[in-house]
Amino acid sequence: xxxxxxxxxxxxxxxxxxxxxxxxxxxxxxxxxxxxxxxxxxxxxxxxxxxxxxxxxxxxxxxxxxxxxxxxxxxxxxxxxxxxxxxxxxxxxxxxxxxxxxxxxxxxxxxxxxxxxxxxxxxxxxxxxxxxxxxxxxxxxxxxxxxxxxxxxxxxxxxxxxxxxxxxxxxxxxxxxxxxxxxxxxxxxxxxxxxxxxxxxxxxxxxxxxxxxxxxxxxxxxxxxxxxx
Length: 229
Known about the structure:
This protein has 229 residues and is of the alpha+beta class. Helix content is 57%, strand content 12%.
């Protein structure tokens, strides 16, 4: 067999092996991402529940994750492109979810505060809002933080497909001015509350600024739980 033929066989075998590795890696990683989202935690639109006067000040037509009657409300004003917001998700959010949201002690609300210097943040926020219209807000939220953002709508359409959204409804939504207005309302509400950076949190009205460690959040949440008894 000629050396050229041997080289070609070796080369194409290597290419096939690399493709197989990439495909397996993609499937494995997406499985992990979807498993990050706990479907057993209820998600409710705030318009559909009776909010306390305190909650109403910080929540407006947003998606509430957890027991809507939980005594503690955690509201995050955030930006999907903000590196400190990603840090909070990776290092702190899951602990809060496991210890407080899943146990019914606290409910969580994500509100959009896309910063002007982050060109992809607003598009990502719209993608999450459109997923929420099909009851998949926090599934999209998870994908955006774990998989990252893209400057094209096609990427978000891929995310939508991966979590089982009706693609036609999603497409209509991401092009809707009403969806854009919802993001702007979140941003304006944040400004009215004095937000200047992301992530910023209100825990039963008490401000925590920045991606603080879990211990800071647990101290405030535990104190608010005691105050609510």
